[in-house]
Write a structure and sequence with these properties.
The protein has about 220 residues and is of the alpha/beta class. It has 6 helices and 8 strands; from the N terminus they run ααββαββαβααβββ. The structure holds S-adenosylmethionine (SAM). The site of S-adenosylmethionine has 21 residues, from α1.
């Protein structure tokens, strides 16, 4: 494991040790912002039943917990301490690094990766892995920090935090989705601290205030 990954693993083990099953273990600002993001994102994803779902970098499993009742949800993370709480929420947990997943090609109907790639140096390798394990016709959804928002630029002036190390442009992820065999990409945009979201194309004026976004695409059927 790279030294950066080892640092993050220790960081999230420590968080889970301190905050337990709370979303604070996954570095959410507070419960409100977590539930706002989760509810909008899961609604956008649509009704899911009897699906095989991967929550990649699941942390304590709070994001995909509502999916557990009607689906089989696998949770993969390298923080073993976080996975104890994810398992208690009903996820089938596995301690793995996302750069090399132990699943066959096309295993999952839906792959979620929420708030993870901003921590990862090898994000293209992780995206490739996530696309590989997505079933043809299935959905890959990635949520991360948006580069270029005015709020984040202001925050960066005042806060030297590891959290803001890496951010992404919407087009940048769209290109990688395209490269790894996904199509019909769509965005869900969030504008912290405002409590609303919008759906739509990249490159609108409102993107200046978009603090994080989710992109989803369908795996092409050959
Ligand atoms: C900010 S938390 C988000 C947790 C969860 N997705 C959520 O939204 O509640 C990021 C998680 O990604 C995990 N993670 C980061 N890099 C990883 C990697 N290379 N392999 C496996 N897990 C990783 C961390 O351990 C942590 O639990």
């Amino acid at each position: 494991m790279s030294s950066s990954n080892m640092n993050w693993k220790q960081y999230f083990d420590q968080k889970a040790e301190t905050h337990g099953a709370s979303v604070k273990s996954s570095d959410y600002f507070d419960d409100d912002s977590f539930f706002m993001q989760r509810d909008h994102t899961l609604r956008w994803l649509g009704e899911l039943q009897h699906k095989e779902i991967l929550d990649a970098g699941c942390g304590v499993g709070a994001f995909s917990e509502p999916l557990v009742k009607r689906n089989t949800v696998y949770g993969v993370d390298f923080s073993q301490k976080s996975l104890e709480f994810a398992a208690a929420r009903g996820l089938k947990t596995m301690t793995e690094d996302l750069t090399a997943l132990p699943f066959e090609d096309g295993k999952f109907d839906v792959v979620l990766c929420i708030g993870v790639i901003q921590l990862i140096e090898q994000h293209a390798a992780v995206l490739k892995e996530l696309a590989r394990v997505t079933k043809p016709g299935g959905t890959l959804l990635i949520q991360t920090l948006h580069r270029g928002s005015i709020q984040r630029k202001l925050l960066k002036l005042f806060e030297q935090s590891k959290k803001f190390d890496k951010m992404y442009g919407m087009d940048e992820l769209k290109q990688l989705f395209d490269q790894y065999g996904l199509e019909d990409m769509q965005y869900l945009k969030m504008y912290h601290p405002f409590k609303f979201v919008t759906k739509g194309e990249a490159r609108t004026v409102s993107d200046l205030f978009c603090t994080s976004f989710a992109i989803k695409g369908s795996k092409k059927i050959d």
